[in-house]
Fold each of these.
Amino acid sequence: DVYMIVPSGMCPAHYDVRPSDIMAIRKASLIILHGMEPWLDGLIKAAENTQVKKLLLKGSWNVPEGGIEKIKAIAQALVEISPQSGDYFRKNAESLQANVERLAQELKQAAEDAKVGETNVITMEWQREFVEWLGFHVVATYPPPERISMKQASELIAKGKQAGVAMVIDNLQSGIDFGARLAHELGAVHVVLTNFPGALPRTKDYLQMLSYNANQLLNAKKIYQGAKR
């Protein structure tokens, strides 16, 4: 059985623990975490489950290569706690990995056909890896909006105008108001991506999230080109 503590689409760092989570941890054999759950150690202590295994999934997951690494790590952890089901876990992991690899090839080809390397963009730093993976040229990034100073904002505007930035790319979970204002200042298209499946329509799982983010970027490029004609 799989019990999902953090609701789909939500950043784990902002989650408020519920009493039912204690019961779930108490019965768990394995806990899978990203390392951005400051409340988790306290939850495990409250559940008094000293035997539970933890699997920390480090690094990015919003590019296919990172996702595949995590699929393999999860499968291996499941095999270790339930070796009698090892073939089942390995088969499912291999199938999912193949689907991710197939989708990655399709998205890369679509980006290459659209010549995205000719498009200059500014992106929220937590989406930079995916934007560059798809092939866009990132001329600048920005941190979560609450950390941006007036000086940094002015520098982003100047750099964006100089580079002829076509798109400003936001991360949904970080807040999108700053990116919207920046895009308006630059006459660029404002694009919102998600770092977690389930946060937006057509993003219910990992594969759909990758497709959604890529299509948002490719469609935004078309919109910008159309506006410039």
Note: The two ends are 54 Å apart (CA to CA).
Amino acid sequence: MKIISYGEFPRLILCIAVCQMAGIVGSIFTAESVTTWYITLEKPGFAPPGWVISAVWISLYTLMGVSLFLIWRQDWGSDREKEGNKRIAIAAFALQLLVNAAWSWAFFGLQSPPAGFATIIILWLLILFTARLFWPISRPAAWLLFPYILWVSFAAFLNFSLWRLNP
């Protein structure tokens, strides 16, 4: 794996910033509902405190940004097939990032655990699909999505539990 060059640093920062922006967009839907609607919900004993959730997401968005950067930096020159595969992988990444932000709208904005659960299942599948597309381009980029899919798996279980506890 090649080391990042000084000239690539702005691209790395941009990739991380784009991913962090998904979290910021999601927080727009979350901010008010967390202090009004969410606190009224019955929660399972394994529900982590808000500060843990925030710290995990900040870390995950950073890892996602590094993953995106590792794909974006690949340059196959005139190999159209590989460049096309890279564009498809980046498009899949963008789609899962949009669905990531949409979960906050579905769960907190609509105040609907069922809508949140449906959205998070789609997100989980898109993360898996994206990692599969990343694998032949950059295995480290694919591996960097592993903590993300693990957390989304946990979040899906939490979302489902909240739905069951608060019909």
Note: The helical segments are 9-35, 50-72, 80-109, 113-134, 139-143, 146-165.
Amino acid sequence: MNLQQLRYLCAVVDHGLNVSDAAEALFTSQPGISKQIRQLEDELGLTVFVRQGKRLAALTPAGEVVVATARRAMREVANLKRVAEEFRGEDTGTLSIATTHTQARYTLPKVIGTFMKRYPDVRLSLRQGTPQGCAVMVALGQADLAICTETADEPADVVAVPCYLLKRSVVTPLRHPLTRIRPLTLEALARFPVITYEDGFNGRRVVDETFAQAGLAPRVILSAVDADVSKAYVEMGLGIAILASVAVDPRRDAGLRRLDASHLFRPSCLSAMVRRGMYLRRYMTHFIEMFAPHVGAADIERALAGGRLDRMRRNLPTL
């Protein structure tokens, strides 16, 4: 048994049991991966995959356990490398951040700029997705950390460190009937076509739940992962948008009005997500501290250790 076999095994599972896709991602050959997996099965004396002809159809019950164990082994190997790099005193390495469009566009640019000046030898990459997708990337080791709103069903291997509360705003054209309504109400919003986040975003879930609890059914005409796309259609007069308040910049969005809706929709918790058991390089912890200066290394360590974060959540600043 060797690490290459475990790496191939995890890659095949991560690519939906498609050996060709896994081989392409790993820059190797399909026969090579198949051979290594067969050798692993022979050494373990069990079948990892259910096969239909030459195709891998599913994991066997034993295979589920083997893959979970292989993932833990690969994580510990990665931890060993990080420990060695840290104790050599080198501020070099990589940092992969999974995040949503809103955070990549509005809350992270200044942080990333500051980080890159402080750690010029760290190669930083951004991967965008839905909050659930970002959490999965962290769980699978495809990203070192995620900056996104918490999800309803986070992977068990992911720890969310709460950083901010995200308020909601209604975005309209400059001269829109809603700009004259005080206070803003759900009934008033429901009279207009709505543009908001697509399913899979905490913001969409909050909007749907809030209207449903009020017995209202808004007409959602467009859903998108990109807040800038939503605002473009608002400018065209196609509807109103319900977005995170940070996604509206008064200087850049001079043709739009932002109406505070924090009294209508509960805020979402914006978190830094890391994989449970992961050894965090100092620069990784420092990135989180740059993003949320009120979150300290002790808070991150407490979260990773499974400590309660109720007090921390109650005192979060808002964005």
Note: The longest strand covers residues 158-166.
Amino acid sequence: MQNTKERSRGIWNERTVAWYQRANTRSDYAERFLGAIPDLLARSRTALDVGAGFGALALPLARLMERVTAVEPAPAMAAALRGAAARARLGNVTVIEATWGGAPVPAHDLVVCAHVSHLLGRGASFLATLARGELATQGVALVRDAPGGDDKFFFGELYPILLGRPYGKSCGSEETEEELGRLGVRPKLTTIEYDSDQPFDSLEEACDFWMEYMGLEGAEPRAYLRGFLAGRLRRENGEWSAPFRKRAVVIHWAVNAPAR
């Protein structure tokens, strides 16, 4: 049942970012992440968040730090982060709208990078920079997916039916751990679980979400989604939501600290 569209400009626009921001307001993701690295937070006054998105971690870090720099290449994400920082009156957040390596960035006490697969995979120059101790003066905290948890937005079921291929996860932690080991880094690994439910005002808005994120178009896939989601989404207080309990690994280490 393939009927897809090209995404030459990527997936992020004002509406898609707003969906994720809305989910984030209900999530305990930042709380779980920060709870995994209390030692690094205690010794850090500045933080660099690479691939910061709309600020799911950058903004909570800014409430704890003297200064936070967020590097984010997607214009819609960067704009959302600037707007959220302004509304929260967090004047200590600097947003650099660039790909990693596309703009000079000074060293910070703590470096954070969450779910940016091309920066955290095998052979990634970003990991090599971290391993050489050139970017973080106190510590590093990376986040990647862990086995288990819910099927993300039912993609495991929907991809074979609507796109004719399996849904491939690209943010597993094993390759990051292996690459760091090759580079001589032996990090601590802390598994966290958090809620990432996605709310919608209506079933039609939910269909819009899946059509957008799966790159679908046309009446046939939308009709299938409408029936599928009507039976899977949770309804409460006039709202529809996709329940999503997620597992991730926080890969963290203190710079110049003894190996564990």
Note: The radius of gyration is 19 Å.
